[in-house]
Amino acid sequence: MEIWKDVVGFEGLYKVSNLGNVKGQKGVLKISTQTNGYKYVTLHKEGRQHHSLVHRLVAFSFLPNPNGCPEVNHKSEDKSDNSVNNLEWCSHKYNHNYGTGHKRATEKQGRKVAQLTLDGEVVKIHDSVRQAAKSVNKSHKDIYNVCNGLRHTSSGYRWEYA
To answer: What CATH number labels 4-97?
Structure first.
């Protein structure tokens, strides 16, 4: 059964449900998705827009937070499931280390990286972005940005995930 409560800070203007839906005076709001997968809505108050993460709206309205924890964790690791049963207040450390998130982040950082000349010839395959950056005495962010198409070169080389 869907239960509705006022959105904290927007009482009388918006309501959020235990299933992760949000409605205003004109009906249910469109829920958008950030590039990182989190769902959000745009709320209006006193002529200003507020982009609010749905899971935090649900948590503030439905979950007690006696320890004053700052973050909300999705227990199933499914960011699209904002039902109250899938959420819990937690510390940053707990949230960061929860489930498979840490493993996925480590695997992503550990992807092999190819160092190429500007003509495209492979110079070396590195075990990670950090290792590649260390080999040319550069920031790992520079190599990462080239691998992800945000820059063309770094240290006179092209870089690609191998």
So the answer is: 3.90.75.20
90-110 pLDDT tens trace: 999 898 888 876 666 666 667
Distance separating alpha carbons of residues 83 and 44, to the nearest angstrom: 23
Q: How many CB atoms lie within 10 A of CB 81?
A: 16
Residue ranges, CATH 1.10.10.10, the chain: 110-161
Q: CATH for 110-161?
A: 1.10.10.10
6's enclosing H/E stretch is strand 4-6
User: How crowded is residue 34: how many other Cβ atoms within 10 Å of its Cβ?
Assistant: 11
Helix (H, G, I), strand (E, B) or coil at 141: helix
Q: What is the 3-state secondary structure (H, E, C) of 96-137?
A: HHCCCHHHHHHHHHCCCEEEECCCCCEEEEECCHHHHHHHCC
For residue range 21-76, what is the model confidence (pLDDT) as tens digits? 999 999 999 999 998 899 999 999 999 999 999 999 999 999 999 999 999 999 99
Write down the pTM of the prediction: 0.66
Q: What residues form DSSP beta bridges with 22?
A: 16
As annotated, the residues of the chain forming the CATH 3.90.75.20 domain(s) are 4-97
